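Notes to self after the Tuesday call (sharing in case useful).
The group wants a holo model before anyone commits to mutagenesis around the pocket. I volunteered. Ligand is alpha-L-arabinofuranose. Logging inputs and output together so the record is complete.
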Amino acid sequence: MKWMCFPVVAAVIFAAAPVGAARQVEVVVDAAHPGPVINKNVYGQFVEHLGTGVYGGLWVGPESPVPNTRGWRNDVIGALKALHVPLVRWPGGCFADDYAWRDGIGPRDRRPVKINTNWGGVTETNAVGTHEFFDLVDLLGADAYVNGNVGTGSAGEVAEWVEYMTADGPSALARLRATNGHPAPFKVAFFGLGNESWGCGGNMTSRHYTDLYNHYATFVRARKEAMPALIAAGGLDGDVAWTDSLSRHIRANASAISLHYYTVPGRGGKAKGAATGFGEDQWMSALQDALHMNDLIAANVARLGATDPGGKYRLAVDEWGTWYDPTPGTIPRFLQQQNSLRDALVAALHFHIFHAHADRVSMANIAQMVNVLQAMVLTDGERMVLTPTYHVFKMYVPFQDATALPVQVAGAPRYTLGAASIPAVSVTAARGKDGRLELGLVNTDPHEAADVGVAVVGVRAVSATGSVLTAAAMDAHNTFAVPDAVAPAPLAARIADGRVIVRLPPKSVAVLAIGE
Ligand code: AHR
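Result:
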């Protein structure tokens, strides 16, 4: 995060605030020293054959009474398009290391039916396979990140899948793809080799996986312009030992090493914690756990600094998000959970962390896009509701491919509960692709507002407009009956002496565009 450091130029005096008063916070953004570009792929999504994440939530099939386009739900696709989803990872997750790609091509009524042994032992019809997935990413306008099978597959199967997707000319696999309805090669932007190979992907050691990675990656071959960027699977909860092993011993082609870390409020305890109806201790614990992502990325970045000083490998945080106890009454292995205002703050804090590490973190995929874990959208039959996480992804669209700017929060104010303490205010800033200055702000304190003054070095602000996401309760959430309980509202900011002054309500996320 070296690029983010610059001297504090604002002198601020903090007085102890009376209960109910707003905390005074001074922020300095250094527009004169732009940092790296925030890869839009850090706003990526993840879709796995898990619960109703694909079947029912996204895919209903062309014959369904639910309005659809070639089987994909129109309502869900329409909502997701507003997020400018840059990238979708598929088919897993743990499911990827059991997936036989040939089961998912050809006429759907002749595809083999299997058991999804990872996720509840339910029937997997293979109705969604390679062609359907590429139709999904086309509908969304996203890039494809296909995750290959290193667990139960072979290097040959991986090689053939990549050839099937990317080859043209006289290749028999390219001709098979054409017979199956797609003469033109698919564009595979990223291809992953294995998933959580320390666990569900094969219980391997880092060294064993590194050797396997080299083996499999050697046979991922395609025309130069069609060659996907390859991603190596990383260690448990961002275990630095895996990053170390991979970055030292990868001999084949690789673009990034992955890192997974989930926010679990009850980490270490018997239960993960409830998605709603929680107390302030669980509010604090979730946000604290979310902020731990910064420590994990920093540790991995530091290790790469030693093993890969030339910056050959990026970090791909290709699974992140909240993981609670499943919604009571649902199939536990479907990982269904409600999504509240707390999730919106968790998401925004992650964005700020990814922005701060934009020089190494080139991708992040929230788990998962629909109905599973920290979802954008929840469905029930024909009904759909947008979650607070959806809204925060939409608010942060201007940060996709924006240039990060250094930010300093003077005095580093804290929100404290008992022995736990985290930054009360988190701020990120960037210059968007359209040249506009964008600010993202989070107030983690559920009780106290923050009056934030923002000075932008080298810029005299003349306007600041934006939106804020907040609610009366920490666990406020949207339901099919009340779909807009948590929705963004316009945020009034004023300008004084070229500075932006904005009041952040307690427990809120805000995004402001600054006019110069
Ligand atoms: O996202 C759910 C699961 O979490 C994924 O399949 C696995 O990679 C991780 O443990």
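Two things stood out.
The chain has nine helices and 26 strands.
The two ends are 27 Å apart (CA to CA).
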